[in-house]
Amino acid sequence: MKLTPEYAQRLFETGAFVIFSGLPTGSEVGIDGECVQDSKTESSMSHNAVTELLLLCRSVHLTQKFSGWKMIPPGLHLVTWSIPSTNQQSPGLQIRHAVLRHLKGGDTYVLKYSSEAEDLVPNAVDQATGEEIPTIVSPEHLRALDTELAVYPLYRWSDWKALTDGIEDADVVRLIGTSHKVDSLCESPADEEVIHKGEVIDKTTGLPATTEKDDNQEGQVAYAIFDTKRSWRNGAVGEEVTTYSRDKSWLLCHVLKEDFAAQPARLLAQLQLAFLIFINVQNFSSLLAFKRFLILLSRSERIFYDKELLTTNGIDSQTVHDLYTRLFGILTAQLSSLPETFFSVDLAGTGMQDFWQDELQSLCRNVACIPPTGVLQAPQASHIKDAMAELKAVAWARFQWNLDTSGTEGLASDNEEEEEGEDAPVVVEL
Q1: pTM of the predicted model, to two decimals?
Q2: Where are the extended beta strands (E) located within 75-186?
Q3: Which secondary-structure segment (H or E) carries 362?
Q4: Which of 163, 179, 211 is the last residue of a domain?
Q5: What is the C-alpha separation between 358 and 362, in angstroms, rounded?
Q6: Where a domain ends, among 138, 163, 188?
Q7: What CATH number is associated with residue 101?
Q8: What's the structural domain count of the chain?
Q9: What is the pLDDT of residues 213-269, one digit of tens each?
Q10: pLDDT tens-digit readout, 194-226
Q11: Domain membership of residue 55 as a residue range
């Protein structure tokens, strides 16, 4: 994209702005995965195991004077920052903070540094309600700041749109609250370590905690609560428990119906947000959530051919079609966004490559096995398989993963016979 003077002027007038006030020396800030760091101070990011696992910024640009970005296209944007600690005795690990905001053309989003909080905070807040007050910045002031504002990395915009397409403001508020803010230390009530037999356990009391959703709960990431290790309905026994311990279709239908009102776009928005927050904010709870969603979606086979299961849960074939067509598009965009060294270097030794590849292989195998007389009509099944082909191509081109499904076409009914007899797994409910 050639940035002519005329085009630059139009972007300046129609794009959004993000402005930082009082940014301390040595701070690291970023937008949509692109980072900027003050050149006068080296990064003090600790290199412990967790940080090495999650420090995934694509590139870092150094600057002597930086006050924000200009020419930001309208849409959802992720602004991240890490502020150096002023505590010389215990500098500790820099916490990465982020705000997810939908910006409109002409918007100016201002964050100022608070020495009291050692953090960036909204420029103005209503003292009575605690809500942020929009900041109006004059065109003259924006032009005065022009030399201190970086141009938004427009070459990344189409890729960023592919990663965020489908995320609505309501999804962000539901997940991280009305402040739209999240950091690397935020936990989720859905974290695996606080789930026990389908109940959320309070870490302090050891007793079941409330599972009621609070859309305004700040300081947490409110991912949908479900346990992939207990994926059958309450009251199930014997063969039903055994079946749905391997196949997550009942749990997927339940989560889709109860948590997302049978709207696949809302479930997939949480999958997208989990990926973005894990990658860019270094939030471990989001990694756990991403893994849960991927297991849930990749290990559900009966959803493609068990009509009674879908009817019982009020889910139709169009919902299944929309869910999996969009899923393949999202996973393709996510794999495409990762550097080729992501698994071999950035996450070497973590087991993430095996996990990711195994789940995608299971997903592709299930789709390849969609029967002609199952839940989906032929055009619907064909559409999903076309989307699957794109994912397989990207997986091979980027990471040399061979998600081979040859020889599995039409084997859904045969899979019911797998591991029967004395080799069949049996789940015993205690």
Answers
A1: 0.85
A2: 75-82, 96-103, 108-114, 119-122, 149-151, 181-183
A3: helix 352-368
A4: 163
A5: 6
A6: 163
A7: 2.60.34
A8: 2
A9: 444 466 789 999 999 999 999 999 999 999 999 999 999 999 999 999 999 999 999
A10: 555 455 545 444 444 554 444 446 678 999 999
A11: 16-163
